[in-house]
Amino acid sequence: MAAVNGGSESQPAKHQEVGHKSLLQSDALYQYILETSVYPREPAPMKELREVTAKHPWNLMTTSADEGQFLNLLLKLINAKNTMEIGVYTGYSLLSTALALPDDGKILALDINRENYEIGLPIIEKAGVAHKIDFREGPALPLLDSMIEDKKFHGSFDFIFVDADKDNYLNYHKRLIDLVKIGGVIGYDNTLWNGSLVAPPDAPLRKYVRYYRDFVLELNKALAVDPRVEICQLPVGDGITLCRRIS
Ligand SMILES: C[S@@+](CC[C@H](N)C(=O)[O-])C[C@H]1O[C@@H](n2cnc3c(N)ncnc32)[C@H](O)[C@@H]1O
Q: What is the pLDDT of residue 8?
């Protein structure tokens, strides 16, 4: 996604004044990243799943290939073993997670829609990683509540990826902060929300973009001041905010 740069020749935008390192200034640059560093290294099953998903009418929902690569590397860097994903769709981020985990790694995968997961499942099975996945169909919140009631789940997850209903992210955060271990990471996806966060109030936005924008703004504000986590918001994909639990 192209970065929102703003500013003019006479008046540079604030972020350009010191140490300006904005990377994605054009779609061509993004394409360059994909073609140079992402697609040539994309595991064959992920490529197959990406191509199958591209034919699905809701393909806009899929995790991008560069973000899939990022998640895969991140999980290896933090030696993740026990993970959770909220928002599976056809399973691109799920597969990138499953491929990164050791053979006895686990992913609790939650989605209200099993049908879309089943589009990707044969590819996940062929890749030999389906045994790591415990898919549960249904809304995530009640399941998180039941896990919160059982102390054995507290502090048990190394990594949690949240890519579902944006209007519940703060509700998820209230619960996930207890379920992720200290030193573990929660990744919230879409935290730049298609660049709409900095659009003027009267900008013509698609209805769902406008609806969820306020929730994403609230989430970003809350994470920025949450003393229980260290955070880093990255312009990968549609923006991902990593939260490392520290207390
Ligand atoms: C953006 S997609 C997930 C994309 C996925 N991570 C990927 O790599 O393709 C969002 C998903 O969240 C699911 N979802 C929406 N509301 C949910 C809820 N309350 N609980 C669990 N999943 C939900 C949707 O069914 C949809 O599959």
A: 46
